[in-house]
Specification:
Length: about 525
């Protein structure tokens, strides 16, 4: 279970500086808070913890302090902000209960050492929603990942997450944590496991117990990564940390944020891109959509959570998309990723919309769950276009009144969220708000954002080329099946289908492309 704690800084008590390497001091605070609730449990967790074959696990981890404004002064960190956020995660329910009770008993605490410390007051405690765990997920580090192994001389070697030995170290660490926590060996013994680094790891050397006889240095790495593992192990990794040294502030992760995902770096810059091309900068705007305009529309799950957990989810989203959006917009490209999506659309002219709405039945609120029929077999082939989603009701004439255009998208997201929540027994928002929209006023952007959309699965490591990913419009573009996608216009931007395929097969520099697209 994970919490976000909002802290206010009392600068009058001890000042505003803490050690630059403060992880050990944060760990000490956690044990102190636990002891306020149950001193014997705190002592047991510190001295003994969960054991497995001589190894000891505390099964909690925490983030770096999230400080909006700060300044480094020699070996100290000066906190300029009045508020600080700190995330802490416990795997054992008992630890969670004792920690929260301790916080309520003692709502102020000091953090630091004799040379530099501050006093914090707990302003707010927020229970963070758990993501929907799947067997393949992408994460980014909130504190550095520590991967090490013991040498024959008793010392430790620290390795980079890109080291070939890293996946096996991580796998074995998770299996050990599972056994320590449950008392059982994880079964089955053979299961799919893959650890793939997405961004270049950045090294940090952390000093623990600085200026004491017990001083030591631990090397960790920040990166984004993709993990494939059984859901049970995924949950243990998320709640107790990845790698080692978790209880002194290493290995806390969060779901990779949509706006910062940069992929494997294997996509590339487009030739002929005009660096002076200007695009309207309303990507995060809540302004009304305009008739007759092109938009790049995209969004992600709230806090990076998954939007699609099983094949039927993708199909159902496309069904709702056709139901709510086809009357007001033409679609030129789309991709559905597990935790986000991209759309390239043109809002129809006002008269087109009135005519379309007049031909469709009143849109009914969906209460359908996403549970597949018992005799159904999900087929991604149905996602290559909208050709299988055309049997929708005709709307009556009394709906000719056009709502604000963004409302149609909101209705789509609300309908899908409701069904998703029913299917997976969750509640609350599913999508980030507001949804992102970028007004496109340049033909070059249309072509390049379409390439970006179709290459998104390559960017995030799901496939090696766009044709291998079933949940995008690429397959529709190279198909001859009837479709509502504006396929002829899309192919026309590249002159012919051969050029369309050739452009998509080119390697790209994703960072250059994202900067050029102003994403």
């Amino acid at each position: 279970m994970r919490f976000k704690i909002t802290l206010t800084l009392d600068k009058k008590a001890f000042g505003d500086r803490i050690p630059l390497n403060y992880q050990y001091e944060c760990s000490a605070v956690i044990y102190k808070i636990l002891s306020k609730s149950n001193e014997s449990y705190s002592r047991w967790l510190h001295d003994n913890g969960f054991r497995m074959d001589g190894k000891q696990f505390k099964l909690f981890t925490f983030s770096r302090l999230q400080i909006a404004q700060w300044k480094i002064q020699d070996a100290y960190l000066q906190i300029l902000s009045d508020k600080v956020e700190w995330e802490i995660s416990f795997l054992p329910e008992r630890s969670t209960q004792e920690f929260i009770q301790g916080l309520f008993k003692e709502q102020t605490f000091a953090l630091g050492n004799r040379r530099a410390k501050v006093r914090f007051t707990v302003q707010n405690i927020e229970l963070m929603p758990s993501p929907v765990f799947t067997e393949t997920m992408q994460f980014e580090c909130m504190s550095p990942v520590c991967l090490n192994f013991k040498r024959d001389d008793g010392g430790y070697n620290y390795i980079d997450p890109e080291n070939s030995a890293a996946p096996e170290l991580i796998k074995q660490n998770l299996l050990n944590k599972f056994k320590a926590f449950t008392g059982e060996i994880f079964t089955p013994e053979n299961f799919p496991f893959e650890f793939k680094v997405i961004t270049k790891p950045k090294s940090s050397l952390i000093t623990i117990k600085a200026n004491t006889p017990e001083e030591s240095k631990i090397r960790g790495f920040h990166c984004r990564f993709q993990l494939t593992a059984p859901v049970e192990l995924m949950k243990i990794m998320y709640e107790s940390g990845i790698g080692g040294k978790n209880s002194i502030g290493f290995g806390m992760v969060k779901l990779a944020s949509f706006s910062n995902l940069t992929g494997s770096g294997n996509l590339s810059g487009l030739k002929g891109a005009d660096p002076m091309m200007k695009v309207s900068k309303d990507a995060y705007s809540t302004e009304q959509l305009e008739y007759g305009k092109f938009y790049h529309i995209y969004n992600c799950g709230i806090n990076g959570c998954n939007l699609f957990n099983e094949p039927e989810n993708y199909q159902y989203f496309l069904h709702l998309y056709d139901k709510y959006i086809s009357a007001i917009a033409d679609t030129y490209a789309w991709v559905l990723m597990p935790n986000h999506f991209h759309l390239l659309v043109r809002i129809k002219d006002e008269e087109e919309i009135r005519n379309s709405i007049a031909k469709i039945d009143e849109i009914s609120k969906t209460t359908t769950t996403l549970t597949p029929q018992s005799n159904s077999t999900a087929s991604y082939s149905n996602l290559t276009g909208f050709e299988n989603l055309s049997g929708l009701e005709e709307e009556t004439a009394n709906m000719v009144q056009i709502k604000p255009l963004h409302q149609y998208f909101s209705n789509l997201f609300n309908a899908y969220s409701k069904a998703f929540n029913i299917r997976f027994h969750r509640h609350g928002a599913l999508f980030e708000r507001p949804f992102k929209r970028k007004l496109i006023e340049n033909k070059s952007y249309l072509k390049n954002v379409l390439l970006y959309i179709h290459n998104n699965p390559v960017l995030h490591g799901f496939t090696d080329c766009p044709v291998d990913y079933p949940c995008s419009s690429y397959l529709t573009c190279v198909s001859i099946k009837p479709t509502k996608l504006k396929r002829e216009q899309v192919i026309g931007w590249f002159d012919n289908e051969a050029n369309f395929i050739s452009y998509h097969d080119k390697k790209m520099d994703i960072q250059t492309l994202e900067k050029w697209l102003e994403l």
